[in-house]
Amino acid sequence: MGRDMNLLAQSEHSLIAGSPYEGMQGFSVINPSTGEQVSYVTEVDEQGVKQALHYAANTFNKLKASSASQRSHILQRWYELVMEHKPQLAKLLTQEQGKPLKEALGEVDYAAGFIQWFAEQAKRSYGEVIPSNDVQHQLTTIKQGVGVVLGITPWNFPLAMITRKVAPAYAAGCSFILKPSEQTPLSALMLAKLALLAGMQKGAFQVLLTSDSAGLIKPLCENPIIRKLTFTGSTQVGAVLLRQCAGTIKRTSMELGGNAPFIIFESANLENAITGLMAAKFRNAGQTCVAANRILVQQSCEKKLVTCLIGNVKKLIVGDGLSEGVDIGPLITLEAKQKALQLVSDAVTNGATVAYQGTEFGGQFMSPIVLTGVTADMEIAQHEVFAPVICIMSFVDEASALAIANGVNEGLAAYFYSQDVSQIHRVSLALEYGMIGINEGMVSNPVAPFGGVKHSGLGREGGHQGLDEYLEIKYLCQKFD
Questions:
Q1: What highest taxon heads this organism's lineage (predicted)?
Q2: Could you give the domains of the chain?
Q3: For a designed S-S bond to 42, which of 26, 141, 399, 416 qualifies (C-beta 3.0 to 4.6 A apart)?
């Protein structure tokens, strides 16, 4: 393959053993801003799945014989190629997903950051020497790749959700079969082709495309060749996948749904809190699992905060992500928009107030909405809104804020703003969440562990913990004569 190769064509196919696998039927990838077809992709069939499993198993056996240094070098080259193709990847991402180009460029950097981090971590899968309780034995541990990995990724961050799974898996010496979202398959294909250019073995990173996710995934989850499942998506689907994996006792890591509280205490710097809230809420039009979903504001500062917040929200520009100056692109589907508007309508019916609503847009575009008077029993406070809707809930004191914040099944991300050092300590310990932003609205970082507690998932991605998710510990007990 040459550097100037055409990475994507008008018609695309699954990538199996480094080559396109053309299916008999397919579906269109649609630009959510324009409704126009970006590309046409064909769906993998049963024979293609069998081939992918065969090549993944064979490649895993070869990867076991490779050195961590070799895998590190290939990952570093993959990182370099992703950065070289940053403009193309970002434009493609905006076309198939809808986010503003400036956010897409940021996602390329974020996605590449995972590749670079795990290129470094590949050489750090250390075992240990354990002091024996006698002189006749030497006790050690080593770490080895878990096996063939199945990854299922969503549409909202189609580059970053892939690299933070594939990069650590490859660093650990595992082969990877990816099922990306049918709404954003092109990003996955381009990443995989760049990985091949970087020198990744042909069966190390394969991409299976389908619009029948359940039909493809269930037999894969039940197949003993697959030794680990990594999934990012809804809690409901995660529960189904766990049941499907139970029969073959697979390793699983799951980043599931969130319902993030964003708490603003009266001691907070309100200007900084609003800046953090704008970032935590409106990135990707609110379509993130760590988006600020419930905005808890202490009563003593609520009026001032709402006034200032609306002033900032009014400045946001909604439109096609490829247009200059756009802050908010379309929602991923018209159904997603209708669901969000229904949640807003239900909240208003039950006593909430629309403090601000921007101009109405057609299609999948949705202008920002600010609701006040939201209460914990409203449906909108019990679900991920996944839209540019701010739900403001008031509280009296720290204890009531914590009760509201922790009063849901999800425990992915939480945020709070306070300048009271003692309060920061207390609240950090009391919040039942896997990640907490303290006077910060953006917590994601490749070098830190990403994941939740309760119904928000299992395991961690990123950080040194992300590599361990793809490694098995083997204990060696050697006796000397």
A1: Bacteria
A2: 11-256+456-477 (3.40.605.10), 260-445 (3.40.309.10)
A3: 26
